[in-house]
Amino acid sequence: MNELVKDKKVLITGASSGIGKYLAIHVAREGGIPILVARSADRLAIIKEKIEAVFSVPCYWYKADLSNDAEWKDVIDQICYDHGSIDGLINNAGMAVFDLVSEAKWQDIDRMLSINVKSLFRTTHQLLPHFLQQGRGHIVNIASQAGKIATPKSSVYAATKHAVIGFTNGLRMEVESQGVYVTSVNLGPVRTNFFNQADPTGAYEKAVDRFMLDPNKVAAEVVGHLFTQQREINMPGWMNSGSKMYSLAPAFLEKAMERQFNKK
Q1: pTM of the predicted model, to two decimals?
Q2: How many Cα atoms are found within 13 Å in the side-chain-facing hemisphere of 207?
Q3: Three-state SS for 257?
Q4: pLDDT tens digit string along 128-185?
Q5: 214 membership: H or E segment, kind and range
Q6: Which of 60, 62, 81, 157 is catalytic?
Q7: Domains of the chain, CATH where assigned
Q8: Alpha-helix residue ranges (DSSP H) falling in the chain
Q9: Rounded distance between C-alpha atoms, residue 157 and residue 139, angstroms
Q10: Does residue 181 have an active-site annotation?
Q11: H or E stretch including 139?
């Protein structure tokens, strides 16, 4: 059991499946208290029941549509009222629709901006005063390697993750001297239902299948760094090395990797 996580209340968005579900399990395994948020009340109720039965720790859940700012603000207020202090926040909720900008539907663009960026800003903005007042806390933002290297058909998604990384880096410098840790998690493709919506054809998922990360391993890595001064978590490592090369020679990489970049 990780003493840094034990008895800590950790709010996890997008917690009904994929990485979010495993984050909840690993927080509970380390003795922490997961507070789960997602749209699917049925799934959250099942996760709560299993976590409490297996790990003997309290687990709480709240239904919310994070694309609805007014609704999400009210739910955050309710969480703060119910629990008093929150120790950690993992902004995990996110979605994508891969499409050429010229062919994209505005509602898809708007929803990506609302969930990936605005709701993350909203949650952080409302909880940050609590962390600063406590003089402690940890904010973990699930970003993406797409936030470092944009590719065709992911222009909007990449832009949202660029925003998350920029926000995370700036916020870190604002609050690090006040006891609040801020970490970005930059992931390559993860084997979850994320791609059911991002690319319903299944072509991209099939093309990158052998590179896909295990969501359980991702969650274990993230929880293993909770309440530590970890600036970034990058998975897989080789993809992060590619992003560093891209920052040095973008035109060369775009030409050399043109075929791979156009697999969506």
Answers
A1: 0.91
A2: 12
A3: coil
A4: 999 999 999 999 999 999 999 999 999 999 999 999 999 999 999 999 999 999 999 9
A5: none
A6: 157
A7: 9-261 (3.40.50.720)
A8: 18-29, 41-55, 69-83, 106-112, 119-134, 155-175, 194-198, 203-207, 215-224, 237-248, 250-256, 258-261
A9: 21
A10: no
A11: strand 137-142
